[in-house]
């Protein structure tokens, strides 16, 4: 397995202490009780693709109302891990998993659980912006309600609220009836965030949401993430150390040494960037990897 | 002060290039003319052949002189490529031209609002009409569409979305089915449905055979279209709490709409002029038959066949007119389907 940090350029120009100061510059948060629910925990998650064991024994607690960044070289299983959380992993033929994902204390893999309800509670934003091409901007935002056959009293209010929270309202409020494909990449990604918010998830999973975007859009989305984290639990996969430092309260470092990916350590983001406990974490966050 | 820039196209052909091309064409034309006049060769085909060879040689020589051997090869290859395009288009234009030329004399004012119940094919052109055939063909196509579109698209959905255990064998069968000769489909309905069950001609019998012919076209084209829809969209739909089928219905199918419409158009094109099963199953008829489930019904292919068989000059003109009407009808169906699908997309 090739293990090269993908954003070498950003990292080599950054000293660990400056990342740590970025991480410390934002208000300290432990996760708040204003968020709904008691949170999300994973217990002993393993994952396989066919016979290929790609993820081993991941135990992570995501405090309600906090942002957790998952970092690590590509191929170490970050995407696979977050896809086990909202049960998207099972869509891949030959996929298997072990362990428990506890949402408010209940295992999402327990028999009899309605998997579509789980995905309503745990929303997801993908790496590539993927607005629905046959729908207008407005229809895109509200598409989750139709897909899940949910009723709301006032669609217009919900539409505006979601677009405002995703930081897109002022840019699109005059063209809600045009197609999402006419937006820029960054706007499309914020549209996808708005779409995920409309079904009011308590957890939002984001898999490298900014990797296809320009720096301006990236900063806007980071602002959005900070604002959203007051009311929901956010898990974000990122290859950008700066981004992890800027947006996350906690950071977990994943690594695969040829075998299945493992979680090396998890701690407050400021600690990961200033005094990581594991030598491999330090090597990775300082760009001295491999 | 800013200088005013005028938009230019430095890559466009200069007048001298155009002049040279024109010269090559003219010279090749002249040469083919002269060559045919001097030698034993005769006919349009000879002109075309000599023209083509002369054109290829001349443009290659010019290219060689100005830009060397690679350019000469390039010129020869592009000549061959154009020849391919010409060879494809020529027969079609020729057919179109023949149908229009021979069909126009058969058109008259009463053509589309009379049937042949009061006339025979050998009567003067201005008597009778093809109302019965047009309505019959439209009925056949409509019934076949009602049956084959759902079956064809559901088959495609099974292959692309369910990806069940039988996807492989079904894909194979569908491909094999697209090679079924139409007469076989006709005989099958004749022996499996018409003789044992209905014991009589009807539009329904004809459209059953057409459905058999249409399903493989629709299923295969739809499958290809659905495979082009990015998986991201399916994942996004499911991640928003949609079940697989709501995601397919709300996201995958709308995204594939114009492609699916193309599949349906291709299906209609496959069957609109189909004759063999129609002869076996619909019984013809010279009167408009409003009941699609009972009684023999006319259709344009049947009318053409019957008129050609009658043999008199009037009858043969009628047949050409029928061909012309059929072509126009298929063309109108295409345009309608196209504009329907694109209007919904750009809503
Ligand atoms: N659809 C798949 N089929 C088979 N193997 C896969 C699939 N997706 C990912 N993998 C494998 O699983 C491992 C983890 O991949 P992934 O979770 O995408 O890593 P990351 O997101 O950290 O880059 C990799 O070795 C990858 O090759
Ligand atoms: Mg990934």
Automatic annotation (TrEMBL), chain A:
Region (Disordered): 1-39
SMART domains: AAA
Recorded GO MF terms: ATP binding; ATP hydrolysis activity; phosphate transmembrane transporter activity
GO biological process per UniProt: phosphate ion transmembrane transport
Residue span, ABC transporter domain: 40-285
Keyword flag Nucleotide-binding: yes
SUPFAM superfamilies per UniProt: P-loop containing nucleoside triphosphate hydrolases
PROSITE patterns the UniProt entry points to: ABC_TRANSPORTER_1, ABC_TRANSPORTER_2
Keywords: ATP-binding, Nucleotide-binding, Transport
Pfam families noted in UniProt: ABC_tran
GO CC annotation terms, alphabetical: membrane
Compositionally biased tracts (Polar residues): 1-21, 30-39
UniProt keyword Nucleotide-binding present: yes
Protein name: Unannotated protein
Automatic annotation (TrEMBL), chain B:
Topology relative to the membrane: Multi-pass membrane protein
One cellular-component annotation, GO: plasma membrane
Keyword flag Transmembrane: yes
The ABC transmembrane type-1 domain, residue ranges: 134-337
Any GO molecular function: phosphate transmembrane transporter activity
Transmembrane domains' residue ranges: 21-39, 45-65, 77-100, 138-160, 172-195, 319-337
Biological source species: freshwater metagenome
Segment forming the signal sequence: none
PANTHER family: PHOSPHATE TRANSPORT SYSTEM PERMEASE PROTEIN PSTA (PTHR42922)
The name this protein goes by in its record: Unannotated protein
Localization terms from the record: Cell membrane
Keywords for this protein: Cell membrane, Membrane, Phosphate transport, Transmembrane, Transmembrane helix, Transport
């Amino acid at each position: 397995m090739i293990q090269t940090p993908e954003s070498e350029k950003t990292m080599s120009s950054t000293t660990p202490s400056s990342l740590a100061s970025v991480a410390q510059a934002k208000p300290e948060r432990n996760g708040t009780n204003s968020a709904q629910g008691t949170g999300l925990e994973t217990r002993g998650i393993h994952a396989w693709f066919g016979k290929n064991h790609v993820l081993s024994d991941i135990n992570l607690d995501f405090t309600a109302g906090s942002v957790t960044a998952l970092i690590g070289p590509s191929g170490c299983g970050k995407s696979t891990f977050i896809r086990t959380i909202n049960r998207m992993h099972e869509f891949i033929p030959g996929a298997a998993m072990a362990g428990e994902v506890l949402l408010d204390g209940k295992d999402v893999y327990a028999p009899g659980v309605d998997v579509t309800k789980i995905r309503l509670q745990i929303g997801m934003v993908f790496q590539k912006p993927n607005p629905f091409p046959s729908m207008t901007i407005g229809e895109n935002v509200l598409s989750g309600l139709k897909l899940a056959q949910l009723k709301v009293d006032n669609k217009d209010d919900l539409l505006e609220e979601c677009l405002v929270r995703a930081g897109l309202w002022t840019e699109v409020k005059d063209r809600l009836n045009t197609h999402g494909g006419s937006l820029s990449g960054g706007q499309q990604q914020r549209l996808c965030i708005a779409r995920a918010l409309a079904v009011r998830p308590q957890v939002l999973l984001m898999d490298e949401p900014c990797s296809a975007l320009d720096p301006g859009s990236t900063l806007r989305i980071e602002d959005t993430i900070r604002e959203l984290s007051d009311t929901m639990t956010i898990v974000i996969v990122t290859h950008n150390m700066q981004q992890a430092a800027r947006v996350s309260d906690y950071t977990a470092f994943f690594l695969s040494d040829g075998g299945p990916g493992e979680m090396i350590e998890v701690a407050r983001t400021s600690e990961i960037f200033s005094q990581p406990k594991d030598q491999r974490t330090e090597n990775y966050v300082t760009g001295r990897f491999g | 002060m800013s200088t005013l820039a005028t938009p230019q196209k430095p890559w466009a052909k200069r007048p001298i290039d155009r002049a040279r091309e024109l010269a090559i064409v003219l010279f090749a034309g002249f040469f083919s003319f002269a060559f045919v006049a001097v030698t034993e060769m005769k006919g349009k085909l000879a002109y075309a052949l000599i023209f083509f060879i002369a054109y290829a040689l001349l443009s290659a020589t010019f290219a060689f002189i100005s830009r060397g051997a690679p350019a000469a090869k390039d010129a020869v290859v592009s000549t061959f490529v154009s020849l391919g395009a010409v060879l494809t288009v020529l027969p079609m234009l020729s057919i179109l031209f023949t149908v229009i030329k021979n069909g126009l004399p058969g058109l008259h004012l009463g053509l589309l609002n009379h049937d042949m119940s009061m006339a025979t094919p050998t009567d003067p052109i201005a008597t009778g009409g093809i109302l019965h055939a047009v309505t019959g063909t439209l009925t056949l196509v409509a019934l076949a569409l009602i049956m084959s579109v759902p079956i064809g698209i559901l088959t495609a959905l099974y292959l692309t979305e369910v990806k069940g255990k039988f996807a492989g064998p079904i894909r194979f069968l569908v491909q094999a089915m697209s090679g079924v000769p139409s007469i076989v489909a006709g005989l099958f309905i004749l022996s499996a449905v018409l003789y044992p069950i209905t014991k009589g001609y009807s539009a329904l019998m004809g459209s059953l055979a057409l459905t058999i012919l249409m399903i493989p076209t629709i299923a295969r084209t739809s499958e290809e279209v659905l495979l082009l829809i990015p998986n991201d969209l399916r994942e996004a739909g499911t991640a928003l709490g949609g079940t697989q089928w709501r995601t397919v219905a709300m996201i995958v199918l709308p995204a594939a709409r114009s492609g699916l419409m193309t599949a349906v158009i291709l299906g209609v094109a496959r069957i609109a002029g189909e004759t063999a099963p129609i002869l076996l199953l619909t019984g013809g008829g010279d009167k408009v038959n409003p009941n699609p489930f009972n009684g023999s019904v006319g259709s344009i292919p049947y009318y053409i066949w019957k008129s050609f068989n009658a043999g008199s000059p009037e009858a043969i003109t009628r047949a050409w007119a029928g061909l012309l009407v059929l072509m126009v009808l298929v063309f109108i169906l295409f345009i309608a389907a196209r504009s329907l699908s694109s209007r919904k997309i750009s809503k």
